[in-house]
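Discussion board: Methods & Data

I've been asked by a reviewer to show the raw model output for two of the constructs in my manuscript, not just the figures. I'm not sure how much to include, so I'm pasting the format here to get opinions. Each protein appears as its amino acid sequence followed by a line of discrete structure tokens. Is this the kind of thing reviewers expect to see in a supplement, or should I convert it first? Here is construct A:
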Amino acid sequence: MVDSTLKSDPPSRTPVRPFAWLWRTVIVELRHVAYVLVWVFVIQHAVAGFVVEGASMEPTLANHAYVIVDTLFPATRPFRRGEVIVFRYPRNPEVEYVKRVIALPGETVAIAHGAVFVNGEPLAERYIHEPTRYFWGPARVPDDSVFVLGDNRNSSSDSHVWGPLPASLVVGRAWISVAPFAILAAEAPSAAPLVTR
């Protein structure tokens, strides 16, 4: 008589891990904590907050405006004309100023008859408070510097007073003004004081 029953291997027994779900949950949560710590580190080292003191950047930045600054900018890309930057004041590096980049390294800048000229061409500046009432230059911006001016041209201590700004003094690019809100794109924590005189 032929046996018609089919035989199979005995069922395999996987070892029971009573707390496997707990370990999976712990690992997932540790990943989340690691992501948060990385973001906190990046934010602390990539951005900084400043309060503007003074009126030299009006109307773009009012007195007491809170500004978020991209501090990675100086090392990641070249300067652009029209962007607002924060830097250590050349005559007192303990103080930080905010101004607008007007001329780039190697360019020639002159100020005359209410206008700013870069390489002989007048700049179209929609952001200034009023036409400039002084004369300056012409002079070439050194290769390791930029020429900066306040938007409130006639009430600003800037490159027309103390000369081109060495790039090594730049802290970062002003990115957003929070109060009042404005995105500070280049046009063709406890807040540290930021002087605009």
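Construct B, same format:
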Amino acid sequence: MKRKKNRTALLTALLAAVLLTGCGGSGEIHLKDLDVDKYVTLGEYVGMEVPVAAPAVDELQVKMTADSSYYERVRQTGAEVEDVITDRPVALGDTVNIDYVGKKDGTAFDGGTDAGAYLTIGLGQFIDGFEEGLIGVMPGETVDLNLTFPTNYNPELAGQAVVFTVTVNAIMPEGRDESILSALGIEGVTTREEFDQYVYDYLYGIQEANYDGQVRNGVMEAFMNRCVFQEVPKAMRERYAEVFRQNIEAQAENYGLDADEFTGYYYGMTVEEFLEAHVEEAVKQDIAFQAVANRENLNVSDEELDSILQGYARNAGAASVEEFLGEASREDYREYLMLERVEQFLMENVKIVN
């Protein structure tokens, strides 16, 4: 039973939607018209030192990922594994062959049963407590694991108590059959050393891909922590909350879920809890960004906005800017472009400390 991962794409999409969805009518408050200095006192943001760990992959992570990938291929091909280990207990980093049955209230549930499965202990493939519960178990032994599914799992099992009955059949050897490696079809990979290097490069690439996002998150957190806020306008909170809610409901419908099921799956909370956690934060960040734009001359002029919107309209094949905008307004795009400029300015004026 594989673990479900949290995702951040939804929040990013919702923040953009606030600015590019016309929903407030003529009385809508726009950032450029707000006396933002009433609501935020900026801290020092130029030259901030922001600690972000450099991309790194340790040897154990490489070993576990390589073992998991290799034995997944072994299972697919039905290859026989020789020299399995049966004379010591399971330890962190081992790949084990197991049978398991998951039951809720004494009844096996869909997707919770397998036989002859390979599992690498410590890689985090299964729900919390599953892999840890096998450490110290001898091959040939059967154990019952009393576990609870996370709240951001699928709606049928989210937060539910279950029991997995697991038999450890054997601990797998660390050797690699070169015929199996060749069957993977990876160019230049026929030996264990080449396979392990391939896995290292793959994992390091993921770390590099995540690094930019970690830097951005670190910069935004450092910037916001240096700001002091007064109570933000109620109308802005209501505007952001309404757009967040509408987009959550639309995305939930695409997945055949209601809104609470959707945010529960992705974030482990109800819609109301999600709005409580994120709306105020989003409003404050945008107000603070407008304050930086005012100070650093990063606002978007009418002429710049006209030129950009005309370009957008041409690229979209729209007959006019008005057709391209639809229900959105020019001011929605002005805000969106301003926020992009401020974010870029902040990213360029900090010191990242690895």
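Answer (T.O., handling editor elsewhere):
This is acceptable in a supplement if you add a one-line summary per construct. For B, something like: The chain is about 45% helix and 15% strand.
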